[in-house]
Amino acid sequence: MNQRIHAVRGMRDLFAADVAQLAHIEAIFREVLISYSYVEIRTPIVERERLFNRGLGSTSDAVSKEMYTFPDRGDEILALRPEGTASVVRAVIDQDLCYNDKPRLWYSGPMFRHERPQAGRYRQFHQIGAEALGYTDAVIDVELISIMTEIFDRLAISSSVQLLMNNIGTPESRTEFKRVLLDALQPVSHLLDDDSRNRLQSNPLRILDSKVPATQDILKEAPKLKDSLSDSSKRRFDEVLQLLDRANISYTIDDRLVRGFDYYTDTVFEWVTEAVGAQDALCAGGRYDELTELLGGRPTPAIGFAAGTDRIALIRQHLTEFEHRSVDLYVVPLSENAQEYSHEVAKHVRGSSNIKVREHIGQDRLKTKMKWADRSGAIWAVIVGDNEVANRSVTLKWLRTERTQVTIPLAKLTQTLTNSGER
Ligand code: HAM
Fold it and tell me: Largest Cα–Cα distance in the chain?
């Protein structure tokens, strides 16, 4: 036998109930986003590497350590997108979507990061995100947070998620804060964990979200980001929090929430959960008022979020019942003569209901056919032989309960199935 070829590490095959769970989650996102009049945008999975270098920052983990890059057949270096915001902004500039409009967009698709795989962290994962471009008002910050709040509600997981809020100021105030932080941490750099010590030069702000206890202790004494904020950032933060209070959305202020990309300005937020292991972030976002200009567009204030649907699926597996069946009705023709009528029965039910119908294929013995019917997970089997063909009837058998089988006219089949209340 030839050697098997396995899937790439961190990239999963999803099947049956997993796909159905994700489809259910995606459907809820879609419904809520559309109800807020957000418009879907689909951007390519492959972009130029420099889009992310410039957009997310070359020292961000996603760019410096985790990006899948490869040379095109020409000289250009391309990348599998590690996230969606930079692509959306590139598309908005390319298509001039902000000309005469303030687009509110949403997207859904696979993203790629070469991280260390573990439960809830994959190298190909799925995000659904929303981005609103052209708005400065704090009302839009709260609209986006309200959308996600409603989605968590509809997914029946809102009691297991917590919203963290912060304001990280402007690039200018952050540059100043980085200097002050560096001055404070450099003398004690030998006490920091390795990652944080490496970040002192490359990305000192990320030290703030270190999970290492010794580093956390040092940070207690270090300068605080909130003390470096400009008056306008402080005002904006207060305004957003007041609007959240008014909308009855609860949150926790986390002044160590800094986010991983350089593009953020002012408002940042993240929903975390304690329900599923270490990968606790389910959705995150914030303002990126300078990104459009950085990518060559006209200055355009903007804000968005992206949710990791694989992680949301994981938490729902822990917390909610989710029943998935791919076959409801299994149609069994007894002989070759009944084959054509079997197609007609299947077509009839499919055409008159949303019942999922599978036809048996293959010239097996009846016992084998019924075994396949049972294995399919179907609620019912319909058996058709010469008598049924002659009378335009079907013999209906319940596969999961002790009910006796009945022979009924084909015209009554759909009604009998839908009225039985078993789906
Ligand atoms: P992010 O925090 O990098 O933000 O990712 C958002 C969400 O994607 C995370 O909260 C998590 O649920 C999920 N996620 C990230 N990496 C992985 C992974 N390796 N495996 C599974 N799930 C993962 C962004 O991507 C920004 N573009 C969000 C944004 C939109 N900001 C403004 N607009």
Answer: 93
pLDDT digits (tens, 9 = 90+) for 302-361: 999 999 999 999 999 988 888 899 999 999 999 999 999 999 999 999 999 999 999 999
Structure tokens at 370: 């019924």
Nearest CA to ligand 1 atom 25: 83
Nearest CA-CA partner of 284 in 103, 98, 111, 34: 111
Ligand 1 midpoint to CA 281 (Å): 8
Question: Average pLDDT over the chain, rounded to whole?
Answer: 95
Residue-by-residue DSSP string for 222-263: SPPGGGG--HHHHHHHHHHHHHHHHTT---EE-TT---S-TT
Three-state DSSP class for residue 125: strand
For residues 138-168, one letter each, b for 16 or more C-beta atoms within 10 angstroms of the residue's C-beta and e for the rest, the string is bebbbbbbbbbbbbbeebebbebbbbbbbbb
Q: Which residues on adjacent β-strands are paired with residue 357?
A: 329
C-alpha of residue 259 to centroid of ligand 1, in Å: 10
* Tally of CB atoms within 10 A around 304: 25
Q: For residue 405, what is the DSSP state? A: P
Pocket test for ligand 1, best of 104, 124, 127, 209 (most atoms within 8 A of CB): 127
DSSP secondary structure string for all residues of 254-298? -TT---S-TT--SEEEEEEESSSSS--EEEEEEE-TTHHHHTTS-
Q: Whose CA is nearest to atom 22 of ligand 1?
A: 308
**Other C-beta atoms lying within 10 Å of the C-beta of residue 220:** 7
CB 123 within 8 A of CB 114: yes
pTM (global) more than 0.85: yes
Name the 3-class secondary structure at 407.
strand
CA distance 155 to 31: 12
- How far apart are alpha carbons 285 and 163 in whole angstroms? 11
Alpha-helical regions (H) of 320-385: 339-352, 366-375
Sheet with 46-48: strands ordered across: 46-48, 77-80, 69-71
- Ligand 1: residues with CB < 6 A are 83-85, 113, 115, 121-122, 125, 127, 129, 131, 260, 281-286, 288, 304-306, 308, 310-311
Q: Whose CA is nearest to atom 8 of ligand 1?
A: 308
